[in-house]
Amino acid sequence: MENTINADWGNLPFGYFKTDYNVRCYYRDGKWGKLEISSSEYISIHMAATALHYGQEAFEGLKAYRGKDGKVRLFRWKDNAKRMRNSADGIMMAEVPVELFKEAAFKVVEMNARFIPPYGTGATLYLRPLLFGSGPQIGVKPAEEYMFMVFVSPVGPYFKEGFKPVAIEVVRDFDRAAPLGTGHIKVGGNYAASMRPADRAHKDGFASVLFLDAKEKKYIDEAGPANFYGIKDGKYITPQSKSILPSITNMSLEQIAKDIGLTVERRPVAIDELESFEEAGACGTAAIITPIGKIYDRMNDKTIEYGDAAGPVSTRLYQTLRGIQEGEIEDAHEWTTIIKGV
Ligand code: PLP
Ligand code: COI
Q1: Containing structural domain, residue 177
Q2: Is residue 229 within 8 Å of residue 290, measured between CB atoms?
Q3: How many domains does the chain divide into?
Q4: What digits encode the pLDDT tens for the residues 297-332?
Q5: pTM
Q6: C or N terminus of the chain, fewer CB within 10 Å?
Q7: Is the CB of 286 under 6 A from ligand 2?
Q8: Which atom of ligand 2 is nearest to the CA of 59?
Q9: Domain containing 209 — which CATH number?
Q10: Residue 331 in domain
């Protein structure tokens, strides 16, 4: 039995949980320094840091999974590293080399091994890489200094319902990201813009929002902090849009869908098409796969229902994804990396 802390693993929320260590690295004088290990939950940065004033900040989210075989696997970390580079490029931050990202991600899991939730509890160890402009500017321009860090937190699923259908609400009076804005990269500002409509949805009893394309309000963008998919006629259908985050979970599900014989369509998905889906779901690292049971549109006071139980295709996708992440189904696409010695 591995050395693990005592926690109520089965009831863990998707929230912050203090662990022993985090790792940090500083970009100064045009280069990255050495990775440092810290046991402090706090950071010290300049009051004129561009992250604080102008939102020069990006983050990532990935998970380490403890398998039935006791091994710990990191899922598609290289794709998160690449996406963080795209985010850095998009808002002119120093890019974190893939090797540095890897060193930090592996180190922080190794150092916090006792916080990795046991197999079968539904909980996982969430890694939160963070990159931001730490150097001062008053003019609106990129910082000259950056900080990259990774901390971890054991978490349960983002939607407390777990693998049970949730109700979500269409948003027409707020946009999360502009068509040519920053929706395709993982920068903090996108999440700030989503808080007001998400708060309203929560108060109205919905688990999440469904954002539409900002220009025409005709097409589906994404489901809050997760991508959207629909299933019909043997097809896995997911929106093509310049203002959504390219979800690594969604890319994986597209592949799994093909592997199990579905046709995959990535194309604009009109809101009018929602009614024709047999199943719908939200997917992401935090959301995993969350089946969507109902979609409410306040504009016409209309609700589309997909049922109170997860559909057969979503269930198969979920089981296959989890099976690969936990090492029980063959990892044919080499998505997982075992972290040795934990
Ligand atoms: N969309 C948004 C806005 C997100 O924040 C996330 C989470 O990272 C996703 C989609 C899902 O992406 P991934 O599957 O890479 O976690
Ligand atoms: C993730 O799925 O990793 C996310 O980043 C979603 C999040 C904003 C909670």
Answers
A1: 166-325
A2: no
A3: 2
A4: 999 999 999 999 999 999 999 999 999 999 999 999
A5: 0.97
A6: N
A7: yes
A8: 5
A9: 3.20.10.10
A10: no
| Beta-bridge mates of residue 281 | 229, 291
Both 218 and 311 in one domain: the answer is yes
Of the residues 14, 159, 285, which should be mutated to test ligand 2's pocket, given the most ligand atoms within 8 Å of the CB?
285
Q: What percent of the chain is helix, strand and coil (3-state, nearest 5)?
A: 25, 30, 45
For residue 1, tell me if it sits in a domain: no
Cβ-Cβ contacts under 8 Å for 40 (sequence gap 6 or more): 22
pLDDT per residue as tens digits for the range 191-244? 999 999 999 999 999 999 999 999 999 999 999 999 999 999 999 999 999 999
Share of the chain above pLDDT 70, in %: 99
In this structure, the answer to whether residues 144 and 183 fall within a common structural domain is: no
Instruction: Determine the residue of 60, 153, 158, 159 to mutate for testing ligand 2's pocket, defined as the one with the most ligand atoms within 8 A of the Cβ atom.
Output: 158
Return the closest-CA partner of residue 71 out of 319, 340, 329: 340
Strand partners, 209: 169
Instruction: Looking at the structure, tell me whether residues 95 and 125 fall in a common domain.
Output: yes
Q: Are residues 93 and 140 in the same domain?
A: yes
Helical ranges in 29-76 per DSSP H: 50-54
Rounded CA separation 280/307 (Å): 10
Q: Is 225 in the pocket of ligand 2 (CB under 6 A)?
A: yes
Give the pLDDT mean for 51-58: 98
Which residues make Cβ contacts (< 8 Å) with residue 278, sequence separation at least 6? 231, 232, 233, 306, 311, 313
At 1 the pLDDT is: 47
Same domain, 28 and 109: yes
Please check whether residue 283 is in contact with residue 257, taking contact to mean a CB–CB distance below 8 angstroms. Answer: no
> Residue 339 pLDDT > 50, yes or no?
yes
Q: Is residue 285 lining ligand 2, measured as CB closer than 6 Å?
A: yes
Whether 171 and 149 map to the same domain: the answer is no
- Going from the Cα of 53 to the center of ligand 2, the distance in angstroms, rounded, reads 23
Lowest-confidence segment of 154-163, 180-189, 239-248, 263-272 by average pLDDT = 154-163
* Cα(154)–Cα(66) distance, integer angstroms: 12
